[in-house]
Design a protein that fits this description.
The complex is a heterotrimer of chains A (about 290), B (about 260) and C (about 350). With about 290 residues, chain A is mainly alpha-helical. Chain A is built from 11 helices and 2 strands; from the N terminus they run ααααββααααααα. In chain A, helix 1 packs across helix 6 (about 160-170), helix 2 (about 40-55) packs across helix 8 (about 185-210) and helix 2 crosses helix 9. Chain A is globular and about 55 Å long. Chain C has a two-stranded antiparallel ribbon. Classes of the chains: A mainly alpha (about 290), B alpha/beta (about 260), C mainly alpha (about 350). The structure holds adenosine-5'-triphosphate and magnesium ion.
């Protein structure tokens, strides 16, 4: 019973950073129509922002996290401007270019920090007990930050003019541009937010995961599973799927092992793909 | 004019197709007789293309059945239906744009040019391939396109592309040919030629069902016309009867788009 | 008619001469290389088969991210058959190819319900699952460390001839022979009606379907054939290097195959070959000479992005383009003068 409860608390932590990553990926897909393969590396860059600013240069942790969000957001803008915009009519080309970008980010991280695990000391030492389960402040911090950020994003998308523009572009880019919505502007903001969310997830979890330049691989696999299970186009779906997947993965890891958990996750994604083989593009397909 | 046979070769019974909440085809029934040229008309969005899509196996029907020579074919694969002799063309120029004209028709000969994997590999499929080639050229000649055999499709004017689309379908040697708007985008001269060709195809023993907005062409060409509106059957009958039917006039006037076409 | 006949003959003869010349070059090549370069040449020949088999799959318009894992299936199967069951190595390679093909046939049922992105991600997931199975099950797959001391290709010991396949030169010729035959088969398939049908499915699957092409069967066929030859490449790899592990067949390796195919261009048969040869030469000779080994992924990444952006039809399109430009440049002033500005 204790173990079950503790595992549930651990899963909540996993769900919160996975939701940040997946929501970012869905934002990018929604507006750009591109599956960003470099999303795991954006997470990695966010983590290394904390390695550099907090662990090496001893800036305050919070400041390093904020810097991670903004810096990775700008990396996203660079990606939009240099790759996704010129390849707007060629989604497969965009995906492949993002694979190229992934390699570049990885190599730059190796140059900057070496291949080995970066060590980040915890920013707080405390922990709380919730009905017998232990939750470190460090993890609690991730959960709180994720909830705050996602709530802020939700409010922003519902209330602001940009939210409407974003939905319009995601539904029909051509019609949106006829209504005077600037596709470039919308794409830039979406890319900043999408990348920034991946970056902040990496920054927040850096003290907990010991980043390496190659950490992006497991992150992107996780993110793919979540967005496919969540229905690719939907932000709410991504959050729900993140919670679902985090619980499945954490429980299977605890009671079996991590590799089995990964296999289960991938099989889950394949199952969803088999049942709903076309996701968003269903209209083109036979029903 | 040929007198259509008595036997229905293609039938729909209570055909229904929904897309989410939208009912594109609603409890629709008709029967096409052998050797007929059967028109299917209706205002834009009436569900004509969807009906073709269901008959030809691109969509499964939500309810109802399709019978081909008395056999229930609802929900079968498009390719299997083509093998049985039910072939459709597409609205607009759906062609292998990157291929030459001849290669387009060669793909149309897919079913006629059977050979095993190994014989393809070592080249003993040459006999059946040469036959397929000859058949393909013959089909092109039928449409007067033989001169263009080597051209890339993208060089062809629109009218020729529409004809090529029919040539590809005809190369599959159908028993029933479903034509989706064969005359759109053609000038009157081209339309006249195309109508003559459709008649000649019918005279070769191919039953034809066609969707078309060019009312003059439809009235001249068809033996019988089925009118659909909002996915359901409105009227069916001989061209003159349909032309003067108040319900049909009402339906077309009710939809501004349709009225434009029905001049 | 007569003229066309002799023209065809001349062209065919020219083509044959070129082929003879090519093979003469390939036969002479290893003797011009150092030992370590010979080893690279062996891997290059194997990679040529890998990327050409990949192209066959892309003919139907689907891009897989599992092709390297399928190669791994061939490698693991061939290695295990030889190690555990004592199957003679040439036969085990063939069976490895069959195993890869069978895996593809099985996977095609879930995967070919998907298209485009979804196929890409589905194939990625399927490949990862296979890789994780190798990782997780130490018996028989050896776990994360993989299989070691895989039986080498048996030496030929006849009275007049003795060939030791441990020597890279000899393995190079073996691989060259296997790959040449495989490429010939792939080429024949593409030039036959099967290839025409693959292309047709790529450009207009609905039209193809409407004239009787069973697109699912043909997609599966392309996948199975491509996988068979990827499996053969895997067998060649396993019995040359002598060790395989899950990391060797990870998505990073798949990225290289993508880069080769895309940089070379997939519109023609020779495009991907051009891609893998040019990039390997750049990689092994230029980068190594400059001591830029660690920068290799970065440079590959940059090349990938630049070629998607500026050379969407690959290196193969460069020749005709340069020719056109050259002709325009030579006839330049006159032609420019005639054209209204
Ligand atoms: N795949 C689909 N998903 C959702 N709705 C569809 C789909 N295909 C057709 N529809 C809808 O079904 C209705 C009937 O469309 P259909 O294309 O059959 O009309 P049509 O009679 O062929 O019209 P037109 O004369 O303009 O070609 C339309 O409202 C259309 O929007
Ligand atoms: Mg229509």
């Amino acid at each position: 019973m204790d173990l079950l409860w503790q595992t549930a608390v651990n899963a909540t932590y996993a769900a919160s950073y996975m939701a940040l990553i997946a929501v970012g990926l869905v934002m990018i897909f929604g507006v750009m129509g591109v599956i960003n393969f470099a999303h795991g590396e954006l997470y990695m860059v966010g983590a290394y922002c904390v390695v550099f600013l907090y662990a090496q240069e001893t800036f305050p942790f919070l400041l390093a996290v904020a810097a991670g969000l903004v810096f990775v957001g700008f990396v996203g803008i660079v990606m939009e401007r240099t790759m996704f915009r010129p390849l707007r009519d060629n989604p497969l080309g965009g995906l492949i270019a993002s694979i190229g970008f992934l390699l570049i980010l990885q190599t730059l991280a190796v140059f900057g920090f070496g291949r080995r695990m970066g060590h980040v000391p915890p920013s707080t030492q405390g922990k709380i007990e919730i009905f017998g389960a232990i939750l470190t402040y460090q993890r609690l911090f991730v959960i709180v930050a994720a909830i705050l950020l996602l709530a802020a994003l939700w409010a922003f998308l519902k209330r602001s003019k940009f939210g409407r523009a974003l939905r319009a572009c995601a539904q029909d880019a051509e019609a949106a541009s006829l209504q005077g919505i600037s596709m470039n502007q919308t794409a830039r903001v979406a890319m900043f937010i999408g990348a920034g969310l991946a970056g902040v997830a990496g920054a927040l979890t850096a003290p907990l995961v010991s980043p390496t330049p190659y950490i992006g691989h497991s992150i992107i696999v996780t993110a793919f599973i979540i967005i496919i299970v969540g229905g690719v186009g939907s932000l709410e779906g991504a959050v729900i799927a993140a919670v679902l997947y985090a619980f499945v993965h954490t429980f299977v890891t605890t009671f079996f092992d991590g590799v089995i958990a990964n296999i289960v996750g991938l099989a889950l994604m394949l199952a969803v793909l088999i049942v709903r083989p076309t996701g968003l593009f269903g209209a083109r397909e036979r029903a | 004019m040929n007198v259509p046979g008595e036997r229905p070769i293609l039938e729909a019974r209570g055909l229904t197709r929904r897309f989410g909440g939208l009912v594109a085809v609603n409890n629709f029934s008709f029967s096409v007789h052998e050797d007929a040229i059967h028109g299917l008309i209706g205002p834009n969005g009436a569900g004509k293309t969807t009906t073709f899509n269901v008959i030809s196996g691109f969509y499964a029907p939500t309810a109802g059945r399709v019978l081909f020579r008395g056999l229930d074919i609802s929900g079968r694969k498009t390719s299997a239906l083509a093998a049985m002799g039910l072939v459709r063309t597409f609205q607009g120029s759906t062609l292998f744009q990157e291929f030459s004209v001849l290669d387009n028709v060669r793909v149309g000969r897919h079913l006629g040019a059977r050979a095993g994997f190994l014989s393809r590999l070592i080249g003993t499929d040459r006999i059946s391939e040469r036959e397929a080639d000859a058949k393909a050229r013959e089909t092109l000649a039928f449409f007067g396109l033989e001169e263009l055999a080597g051209e890339p499709v993208s060089n062809l004017p629109h009218g020729h592309q529409r004809m090529l689309g029919m040539a590809v379908a005809l190369a599959a040697e159908p028993k029933v040919l479903l034509l989706d708007e064969p005359f759109t985008g053609m000038n009157p001269e081209e339309t006249r030629r195309m109508m003559a060709l459709v008649r000649r195809i019918r005279d070769r023993g191919v039953t034809i069902m066609l969707v078309e907005h060019d009312m003059q062409a439809v009235m001249n060409l068809c033996d019988i016309i089925t009118v659909m509106n909002f996915g359901a059957l409105l009227v069916e009958g001989a061209p003159e009867a349909v032309r003067n039917d108040p319900a049909v006039i009402e339906a077309y006037l009710g939809s501004t788009d349709g009225a434009g076409h029905a001049s | 008619m007569q003229a066309a006949g002799t023209g065809g003959l001349v062209r065919r003869t020219a083509w044959r001469l070129r082929l003879v010349f090519l093979f003469a070059m390939l036969a002479a090549l290893p003797y011009l290389l150092s030992y370590s370069q010979q080893e690279i040449a062996v891997l290059l020949v194997i990679n040529v088969l890998l990327v050409c088999s990949y192209r066959l799959l892309t003919l139907t318009g689907e891009w897989s991210l599992g092709h390297v894992v399928i190669m791994g299936v061939g490698a693991y199967a061939s290695a295990l058959l030889a190690k555990q069951f004592g199957v003679p190595v040439p036969l085990s390679m063939l069976l490895g190819g069959c195993m890869a093909a069978a895996t593809a046939a099985l996977l095609s049922f879930p995967l070919f319900r998907m298209k485009g992105f979804y196929f890409l991600i589905g194939s990625f997931a399927a490949g990862e699952i296979i890789r994780l199975i190798w990782k997780r099950f130490t018996d028989p797959f050896g776990g994360p460390k993989g299989l070691k001391r895989i039986d080498p290709f048996p030496d030929i010991e006849a009275s007049f001839l003795s060939v030791d396949f441990y020597e890279p030169v000899n393995y190079y010729f073996l691989a060259l022979a296997v790959v040449s035959v495989s490429l010939f088969v792939l080429y024949r398939i593409e030039r036959s009606r099967i290839g025409l049908t693959f292309h047709a499915i790529h450009w207009q699957d609905r039209l193809a379907e409407s004239v009787g092409v069973d697109t699912f069967r043909y997609r599966t066929l392309a996948f199975v054939i491509a996988s068979f030859f990827a499996g053969i490449a895997g067998g060649l790899y396993a019995h040359y290097v002598g060790a395989v592990n899950p990391t060797r067949f990870s998505v990073d390796q798949m990225v290289y195959v993508l880069v080769w195919a895309i940089v070379g261009g997939t519109a023609t048969f020779h495009g991907p070959i051009l891609g893998v040869v040019v990039l390997t030469v750049i990689n092994e000779i230029v980068l190594r000479a400059l001591g830029l080994d660690t920068a290799r992924p970065l440079i590959y990444g940059a090349i990938l992005i630049l070629s998607v952006l500026y050379l969407p039809n690959g290196l193969e399109s460069l020749g005709p383009r340069l020719q056109a430009r050259w002709r325009r440049w030579r006839g330049g002033p006159a032609a420019a003068g005639r054209e209204p500005a």
